[in-house]
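re: ur question from earlier - yeah i can do the single chain one, its not a big deal. heres the input i used so u can compare w yours
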Amino acid sequence: MLLKGKNSVITGCLQGIGRSTLQSFAENGSNVWACALSPNDEFELFCQNLAEKNNIWIKPIYFDLLDQEQIKAALKKIASDKEPIHALVNIAGMTKDAIFHMIPMEQMRMIFEVNFFSQMYITQYITKLMLRQKFGSVINISSISALDGSYGQLSYSASKAALIGATKTLSAELAEKGIRVNALAPGVIATDMIKVVPDNIISGHIKNMSIKRLGSPDEISKAIMFLASDLSEYITGQVLRIDGGIK
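and the output i got, formated as tokens:
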């Protein structure tokens, strides 16, 4: 098991890539603080069953990424467990698509608050704990739209590009302290986020892929798991595209 005996903080665990990552980490031996927006009976049961099946612990932690006081309280709860933190995976995010001249500035600020500033607040807090340990791995989930741009997604693309810039800088600052920082740039992945995207847009993306299909959350979670594991101990400051060879 790649992550046996490790403890990980994962955000966005309710669905999609976050839920798949929670499952992959648990099945590979990691204990998890499973962060999500709000309490959910189905999610609580999922975590309980997953923990029992894999003989690890999973602690659901709830907070709103738009509420810094909730985030702070949740992080203090994690710290109060006084367990080493081997990995932080920043997955939670949001998008509201609109062409540039139709984007209200308040909406743009909200997307940056969720996709960037809240992630930086969490990362700052958790990496302070990692500094005491002198080890840790941070994995930020960006997007190929941050690298290539995407029509109608300026706020999302820019916020995810900011994550890449932060990843590069943090990796340089924290490497000598034993902390690695990397990012993933997923392509078009079959999650709830793309259900609102018209079929013709999706088919157009697939046409431009070398691998002619959507990616799965599980395929992203496997790469996240690799970056959290000791197999990637000489990798930092990198942005790994997982996009089926999109052109």
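The radius of gyration is 17 Å. not sure if urs matches, ping me
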